[in-house]
TrEMBL record:
Gene3D superfamilies named in the record: 3.40.630.30
Name by which UniProt lists this protein: Acetyltransferase (GNAT) domain-containing protein
SUPFAM superfamilies xref list: Acyl-CoA N-acyltransferases (Nat)
Length: 49
């Protein structure tokens, strides 16, 4: 069972270094959206229903 399938998980967060554009694109394709974060690394999140 993955973390996205657990009832207690509502939001998944990930952080990517700005220079790592390939990883950022993978997160976006997986349904993550960029959220406000101060400085580096860049924060992404995905809401789990």
């Amino acid at each position: 069972m993955g973390s996205l399938e657990l009832d207690s998980v509502h939001t998944v967060h990930a952080h990517v270094e700005p220079a790592n554009r390939a990883s950022a694109r993978v997160l976006e394709k997986a349904g993550f959206t960029r959220f406000e974060s101060t400085g580096e690394p860049i924060g992404y999140q995905r809401m789990v229903s």
